[in-house]
């Protein structure tokens, strides 16, 4: 096992990162601190990983971070660092390396204040490792102001600092930032490769692994959840019943309400898991005693946390709805494939009966309109239309076809 093993079906990206890690290693070993990088070096200070959701953008960034911190004297593959076992590799991969910071937000945007803190930190030399690495998993969520703060840091990086930004596509990142990054594109991994990794690494039995990989069409994270989480399977099954339930107005409204309720439950569950502890921790840090009044002057900080938790709840609900919409789109895509006699592999083979029923009782034009109504629902939520309204409009449109 090396750090590269987690990259599924991304051979070209892996080659580029391995070459960069090798040059980075030579640089640290041979060149004294502070000297600029060679023009010809495959290593650089700012990287941008793009690719569709689930293709493994942040996995690739982490693997690269680990390879940069690898301290093993034996290089596994032709002198490439990233043994996967040494302290540098291991702590980077599990997220505890002092010089690898993973920025993952559960909010809808990353603001100026957080970005300033990061940039300040990025000016420091590595504490224990060879490089100071900052992985920003959702660079598409930087506000414009935050992007401008980051730009400065990417333009004039400290000698041993490496930025790794991840985003769905190039268009999601400010042009000024992306033009200063070396860009790597990940592609959706083949279904077979995803199934293989579920079997090999997660110990999932082959049949379930294949079914999960096919149903999620190469999205590794979702495939893993589907293969290992009973609740995720139950939820998907409920979503894939929606097309059969929109025969009348009552069914449409009911299906919409249930989609919203499920998403709300998800947000609530997550809030219960995280919010209470977070609030208690902050109270303690501000000098409060359990059950007692908070000291003067702490109301602002408490309010700030409350706002953050509220935004996170909205985001979780939104993500959960997004997933349901993705599953519905996949369902109708399969219907369309059946109607057109296309040779595309069907993703949702486990609900073949429902697919057949809908395919026989409608036309390809109707199916296309249904797919459009699912996309329109997502667009409406992007424009901050109330989720229930957007979802009701969708289920009604699914009925009409
Ligand atoms: Zn190592």
- CATH class of the largest domain equals Alpha Beta
Q: What is the mean predicted local confidence, pLDDT?
A: 89
Kindly give the count of domains: 3
Bound molecules: zinc ion
Q: Give Rg in angstroms.
A: 24 Å
Per CATH, the architecture of the largest domain is 3-Layer(aba) Sandwich
How far the N terminus sits from the C terminus, by CA atoms, comes to 50 Å
Task: Explain briefly what this protein structure is.
The chain has 401 residues and is of the alpha/beta class.
Describe the structure in your own words.
The protein has helices spanning 11-30, 57-69, 87-94, 112-122, 144-155, 175-178, 191-202, 206-215, 220-228, 230-245, 249-285, 299-339, 352-360, 364-382, 387-400, and strands spanning 46-50, 100-103, 132-136, 161-167, 182-185. Strands 2-3-4-1-5 form a five-stranded parallel sheet, covered by helices on one side. It has 15 helices and five strands. Strand 3, helix 5 and strand 4 form a beta-alpha-beta unit. It has three domains: 11-185, 3-Layer(aba) Sandwich (Rossmann fold); 191-228; 244-287 and 301-400, Zinc Finger, Delta Prime, domain 3. It is globular, with a radius of gyration of 24 Å. Helices cover 59% and strands 6% of the residues. By secondary structure, it is an alpha/beta fold. The model has no long low-confidence stretch (mean pLDDT 89). 37% of the residues are buried. Helix 2 runs antiparallel to helix 3 (87-94). The structure holds zinc ion (ZN). The site of zinc ion has 7 residues, from helix 3. Zinc ion binds at residues 70, 72, 82-83, 86, 88-89.
């Amino acid at each position: 096992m090396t750090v590269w093993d987690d990259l599924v079906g991304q051979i070209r990206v892996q080659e580029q990162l391995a070459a960069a890690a090798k040059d980075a290693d030579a640089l640290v070993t041979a060149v004294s601190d502070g000297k600029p990088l060679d023009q010809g070096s495959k290593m650089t200070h700012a990287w941008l990983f793009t690719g569709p959701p689930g293709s493994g953008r942040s996995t690739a960034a982490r693997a690269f971070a680990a390879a940069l911190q690898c301290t093993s004297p034996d290089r596994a593959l032709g002198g490439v660092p990233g043994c996967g076992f040494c302290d540098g590799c291991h702590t980077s991969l599990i997220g505890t390396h002092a010089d690898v910071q993973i920025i993952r937000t559960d909010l809808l945007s990353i603001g100026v204040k957080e970005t300033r803190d990061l940039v300040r930190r990025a000016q420091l030399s590595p504490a224990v490792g060879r490089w100071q690495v900052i992985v920003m998993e959702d660079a598409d969520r930087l506000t414009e102001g935050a992007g401008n703060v980051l730009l400065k840091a990417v333009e004039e990086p400290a000698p041993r600092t490496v930025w790794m930004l991840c985003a769905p596509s190039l268009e999601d990142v400010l042009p000024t930032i992306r033009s200063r990054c070396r860009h790597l594109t990940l592609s959706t991994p083949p279904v077979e490769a995803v199934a293989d990794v579920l079997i090999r690494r997660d110990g999932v039995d082959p049949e379930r692994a294949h079914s999960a990989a096919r149903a999620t069409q190469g999205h590794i994270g979702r495939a893993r959840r589907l293969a290992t989480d009973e609740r995720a399977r139950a939820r998907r099954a409920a979503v894939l019943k929606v097309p059969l339930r929109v025969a009348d107005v009552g069914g449409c409204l009911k299906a919409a309400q249930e989609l919203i309720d499920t998403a709300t439950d998800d947000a609530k569950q997550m809030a219960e898991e995280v919010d209470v502890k977070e609030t208690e921790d902050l109270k303690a840090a501000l000098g409060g005693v359990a059950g007692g009044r908070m000291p003067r002057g702490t109301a602002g900080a408490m309010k700030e946390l409350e706002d953050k938790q509220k935004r996170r709840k909205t985001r979780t609900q939104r993500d959960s709805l997004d997933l349901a919409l993705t599953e519905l789109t996949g369902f109708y895509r399969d219907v369309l494939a059946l109607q057109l006699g296309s040779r595309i592999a069907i993703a949702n083979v486990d609900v073949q009966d429902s697919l057949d029923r809908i395919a026989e009782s409608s036309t390809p034009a109707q199916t296309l309109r249904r797919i459009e109504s699912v996309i329109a629902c997502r667009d409406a939520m992007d424009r901050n239309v109330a989720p229930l309204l957007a979802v009701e409009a969708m289920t009604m449109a699914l009925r009409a076809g």
